[in-house]
Amino acid sequence: MDRLYVLGGRQRTPGLKETSYENEWCMYDAALIVEVDTNSGAVRTCVEYQSPPQARAGNRPGAHFHSGALIGNTLYTCTTTEVLVYRVPEFKQIGYVSLPCFNDLHHVTPTIDGNLLVVSTGLDMVVKVTPLGEVIGEWSVLDEELWVRFSRTIDYRKVETTKPHIAHPNFVFELDNEVWATRYFQRDAISLNGSKKRIAVAGEGPHDGYRYGEWILFTAVDGRIVIVNRRTLQAEQVIDLRQMQDLKQMQDGGQPMLPAWCRGLLPVDERHIWVGFTRMRQTIFSENIRWFKNIVGQGTIKRPTHIALFDIAERKCLKQLDLEPYGLHTVFGIFPALP
After folding, report:
1. Residue 299 in this model has a pLDDT that exceeds 60
2. DSSP code per residue over 221-277
3. I want to staple 334 with a disulfide (CB 3.0 to 4.6 A). Which of 87, 133, 135, 266 is the partner?
4. 180: helix, coil or strand?
C-alpha cells in the first residue's frame, strides 16, 4: 500500500500538558482525514471538519474523527457526536446522522443488511440505526437494562463527558450473525445477542479490531496486537510492538522512548500490518492506566503521534512516519487510499 488514509484530529496545543481532564471534550480544534504517501512520507489533508453547534457541548468549535470502515468507495467515520459518510477519493459527504444518544462515539460500521452499528462509548452501549437516523436496535455492553444509568430525555451530545465509564466500548463488528463489541475495562469482546460468547483480549484495554480471513486482530492500547481465531474465539498470538519499535529506535541511533497510545490498524497481508500510535496525553494520569504508571519512571522522551509498519513474522518495525508536523495529533483509523 503506497498511500493510506489516516483519521484523527488536530490538537489545540499538542503535548502532554495541554488540557485538563475536565476539558478533554474540547481538546481538538478540527477533525482531520489525511492521505499519507508511505514511500515519501508526504501528507496532504483531505478533510478538515468541525462539528456544528447543535452537535457539540459548549461553544468552542472542534471535533476529531474516530474510527469507521471503508467499503468500496464509501468511507464511514464518526466524531464524538456524529456519523459522517464520504465518497472517496473526492471526499464528498453523502451521509450524516446525529442523535441525542450519541456521546463519545468511537466507531461506526455498516451492517450486512445496509444499516449502521454505532458505538456510543459515553453511554456504554451500541446502537443500530438506518442511514437516515432511525434507531432500530440498541444494546448495553454490560449486564444491565438499557436506560438505567442514563435517560432517554437527555441530549447527550450536549453533555461534555459521562466519565467514568464502566465498560468503555470501542469497536463493533458482526461475526456469524451476531453483533460484537470490545470493552476496554473488561479487556474483552462480547456478543451482544444473548449467546454469552466472549473473547478474552490479552494485555491492556482493547481498542480497535479488524476481520482478516480466519482471524480477528485487536489492538491493545499498551502496544500489543492480539490475533484471535474466529472459529475458536481464542487468542493464538500476542505480539508486543513496543519491543520492535525500541529495537528500531536503537538501530537508528536513538534510545528507547515512552510508548504511545496504540489504536488503529490495517493489515497489508498475512505478515505486514500498519498500526497507529498517539502521543500520551495528560488525561491518562486521571485514568486507571496501570501499565503507563509502571513505566513512566523509565524515561521522559515521549513518542510523537505516528503510524508504523510492522513485519509480525520477522518481529520487526520496518517504518515509522511522524504525523505531528502535518497537524495530526491523534490517530484513530487507518485505511487504504483509493486511486
Report:
1. no
2. TTTEEEEEETTT--EEEEEEHHHHHHHHHHHTT----B--EEEEEEESSSSEEEEEE
3. 266
4. strand
The CATH H-level superfamily of 3-336 is TolB, C-terminal domain (2.120.10.30)
User: DSSP state, 72?
Assistant: T
Cβ distance 103 to 66 under 8 Å? no
Distances (CA, A) of 131 to 16, 61, 81, 114, 312: 38, 25, 15, 8, 37
- Per the CB < 8 A criterion, the answer to whether 117 and 179 are in contact is yes
Contact 50, 25 (CB under 8 A): no
φ/ψ region of 104 (left if φ > 0, alpha if ψ in -120 to 50, else beta) reads left
Is pLDDT of 289 > 90?
no
Cis peptide before 89 (omega within 30 of 0): yes
What residue ranges do the domains of the chain occupy? 3-336
Q: Decide the pairing of beta strands 330-336 and 178-183.
A: unpaired
- CA 248, CA 210: separation in Å to the nearest integer? 25
Cell matching residue 272: 505486514
